[in-house]
Amino acid sequence: MSDLDAIAAQLAASPGISLDAESARPVGGGCINAAWHLSGAGSGIFLKTNAPSLLPMFQAEAAGLTELGAAGSLRVPRPLATGVTDASAWIAMEWIEQGEGSAEEELGAGLAEQHRKTAGRFGWDRDNTIGSSPQRNDPSADWPDFFARHRLGFQLDLARQNGWGGTLTDAGGELCQRLPDFFSDYRPAPSLLHGDLWAGNRGVDSEGHPFLFDPAVYYGDREADIAMTELFGGFGADFYAAYGEAWPLDSGYQVRRLLYNLYHILNHLNLFGTGYLGRAQGMVDRLLAETRG
Ligand code: ADP
After folding, report:
1. What is the pLDDT of residue 151?
2. How far apart, in whole angstroms, are the C-alpha atoms of residue 270 and residue 160?
3. Where are the domains of the chain?
């Protein structure tokens, strides 16, 4: 039996799932996993596979989709099941047929509404991944401490282990210590974040409504999601206008944007290598200069 047949057999045994196991068609466009469309009830099933050891990554993705879906602000695929065979871990979710347009305005207003969903503390009730890197979410009442420890500090430690210690470790450590300086007159709420909001993780369904997928959910400063939309581009003026109309950003965002995107650049350094080292170091230097006034 091929691995895909083994997964299809497990899926078919899950309650409430019907599928045509012969229909698997590969889907491109992802960064991390192999992906497939399987025909079945309704529009069918979207299946992603990776190494068996990555089952917790898919379980966390399913939990993140459930959390975002429960907020009811923006469409996300409904997770169906996760599992593991001898050769692969897998996640199955509702297939969303993609349509035309970009639905910028609806996405901006919907994201602001999603960010209004808050929790008692920053973090989440489980860890997950950002790309394929671990992401720690230990709940905390202190946002600068959370971001210094579990976001920048965690990636800086990984970078050191990967051979990019020295200046980056020293300057990055100093930045982590100074993090409260960026929050002297700004107290963010723990907002429900998508967590990996680049243009490659948004789509438009066949009815023209926006949807989000592939999240790295946690509760944090909403500015972190907005910052990431700006890191690689692909979000239009109407998106920012609709978001800002629903919930204006604090003026200090212009500086903190760099802080929040440093996390993703450090993650890219750790995932993809040296090409990101100069950019990471430059961002740390600029942020340190900000704190020195
Ligand atoms: P990866 O985890 O490898 O980055 P993604 O979750 O980003 O993979 O999905 C890969 C591609 O599959 C996306 O670029 C998107 O076009 C498409 N896709 C994602 N989720 C769905 C879905 N539920 N239904 C249909 N297509 C999807």
Report:
1. 98
2. 9
3. 3-94, 104-292
Q: Are 266 and 175 in contact (CB under 8 A)?
A: no
> Does the annotation count 196 as an active-site position?
yes
Q: Is the CB of 283 under 6 A from ligand 1?
A: no
pTM over 0.70: yes
Using the structure block, give the residue that is written with the tokens 């079945």.
40
Report the C-alpha dihedral over residues 142, 143, 148, 152, rounded to 10 degrees.
Answer: 150
Q: How far apart are the first and last CA of the chain?
A: 64
**pLDDT band per the 50, 70, 90 thresholds, residue 185:** very high
* Selected catalytic residue, list 196, 214, 221, 225: 196
- Decide: 14 and 81 in contact? Cβ < 8 Å: yes
Per-residue pLDDT reduced to its tens digit, 44-98: 899 999 999 999 999 999 999 999 999 999 999 999 999 999 999 999 999 999 9
Topology annotation, domain 3-94:
Phosphorylase Kinase; domain 1 (3.30.200)
Ligand 1 centre distance from Cα of residue 274 (Å): 27
If you search the block for the tokens 């800002």, which residue do you land on? 244
Q: Is 32 in the pocket of ligand 1 (CB under 6 A)?
A: yes
What's the chain's average pLDDT? 95
Class level of CATH domain 104-292:
alpha beta
